[in-house]
Design brief:
Bound molecules: nicotinamide-adenine-dinucleotide, uridine-5'-diphosphate-4-deoxy-4-fluoro-alpha-D-galactose
Strand order of the largest sheet: 3-2-1-4-5-6-11
Helix content: 40-55%
Number of helices: 11
CATH topology of the largest domain: Rossmann fold
Strand content: 15-25%
Shape: globular
Number of strands: 13
Radius of gyration: 19 Å
Distance between the termini: 39 Å
Mean pLDDT: 97
Structural class: alpha/beta
Length: 339
């Protein structure tokens, strides 16, 4: 069995990816500092896969600890690097936290990759690198726009750092630019666990429906879109997790055309905020309290992926519907509230 290191593997996307990796036959070792996750996630993963991943609690900001980890684990064949801070708003308030956590951690990992000749890296990027697109659907060749937040900037800089390392070392990397992941595993054993008030749409919806929030604020209905609300490409987190497995397999069998390949990971379908709200009401058969409020600063009007490249080269496409994603998110919310 090939051993894969998953940093941030107890987080939202990481935990779903660990499940898919284990189900495909990979041996997984997780590094996480639990800054945005909990140890219970290991139990959820184990319940689904009947196999427990190895877990090492470690903060990747501490270089010596990272070095020590790699000195002790010399049989890692690939790394999927999820660990990062991910709140756009928090990054504007506290940019250094983001530059430190999202860039230093990557640099320390890359140093160890070079030293221990670990040449396969998958990086969690984001469609945020595109900013406000000039045309839709957006392809991987679209220009990377000036980042509107330090968080977005860390994703752009990370891709550049990886690219630079690919050209001077044996490193091969795939950068996956995620669109908007939503939903949970169908078992409701794992899902999204936002700390505090959720910033993202779907966790805010499920927390409103369960009674934790009075109402959902819809940020603006005067955008130049068919119903006036913003458009995004919402992808089921299990489909996103599966994209990591096929990308990893491509790296491991060395089928790369160039040392750094970039793929959009979305459904290719744009969906408005109101469409999500209506679909949620339909799949859960209940009314959702919501109010239209002012626009949120920094929101792009519309973004959705051109998925042809992932489809043709990775042989991957999303399979689950937005309704399935919403239904799984709702099942997960009810489970964690003991309903
Ligand atoms: P998450 O916060 O649920 O998971 C990240 C995990 O990394 C957490 O478990 C956290 O405890 C851990 N972590 C953070 N800093 C660490 C450190 N210094 N050392 C060790 N562990 C650390 O986030 P997620 O939604 O699963 O996102 C995973 C990755 O995907 C991130 O890089 C994020 O930027 C990227 N991404 C997420 C989205 C999204 O909407 N969720 C969209 C695009 C890209
Ligand atoms: N929205 C609301 N009310 C809310 C929350 C969100 O109306 O309470 C709207 C937003 O205005 C936006 C849409 O729902 O139009 C989606 O918002 P999210 O916050 O869920 O997602 P974003 O597209 O803003 O950003 C997400 C991640 C970023 C990542 C980006 C692209 O939060 O980290 O996707 O991957 F960079």
């Amino acid at each position: 069995m090939q051993k894969i290191l998953v940093t941030g593997g107890l987080g939202y996307i990481g935990s779903h990816t660990v499940v898919e990796l284990q189900n495909t036959g990979f041996e997984v070792i997780i590094i996480d500092n639990l800054s945005n996750s909990s140890l219970d996630v290991i139990e959820g993963i184990t319940n689904i896969t009947k196999s427990s991943p190895v877990f090492v609690k470690l903060d990747l900001r501490f270089k010596k600890d990272v070095e020590q980890f790699f000195d002790q684990h010399n049989d890692i064949e690939g790394i999927i690097h999820f660990a990062a801070s991910k709140s756009v708003g928090e990054s504007i308030e506290n940019p250094l936290l983001y530059y430190e956590n999202n860039l230093n951690t990557l640099i320390y990992l890359l140093k160890e990759c070079k030293k221990h000749r670990i040449n396969n890296l998958i990086f969690s990027s984001s469609c945020t690198v595109y900013g406000e697109p000039d045309s839709l659907p957006i392809t991987e060749d679209a220009p990377v726009k000036k980042a509107i937040s330090p968080y977005g900037n860390t994703k752009q800089i990370s891709e550049e750092i990886i690219s630079d390392m690919c050209s001077v070392s044996e490193l091969k990397s795939i950068s996956l630019r995620y669109f908007n992941p939503i939903g949970a595993h169908s078992s409701a054993e794992i899902g999204e666990l936002p700390i505090g008030v959720p910033q993202n749409l779907v966790p805010f919806i499920t927390q409103t429906a369960v009674g934790l929030r009075d109402y959902l604020s819809i940020f603006g209905n005067d955008y130049p879109t068919p119903d006036g609300t913003c458009i995004r490409d919402y992808i089921h987190v299990v489909d996103l997790a599966k994209a990591h497995v096929v990308a990893l397999q491509r790296l491991l069998i060395n089928k790369m055309n160039i040392p750094l390949e970039i793929f959009n990971v979305g459904t290719g379908r744009g969906c408005s905020v109101l469409e999500i709200v209506n679909a949620f009401e339909k799949v859960t058969d209940q009314k959702l309290n919501y109010k239209i409020v002012d626009r949120r600063s920094g929101d792009v009007v519309a973004v959705y992926a051109d998925i042809q490249k992932a489809n043709e080269i990775l042989g991957w496409k999303s399979e689950r519907t937005m309704e399935e994603a919403l239904s799984s998110a709702w099942k997960w919310e009810q489970k964690i509230r003991n309903l």
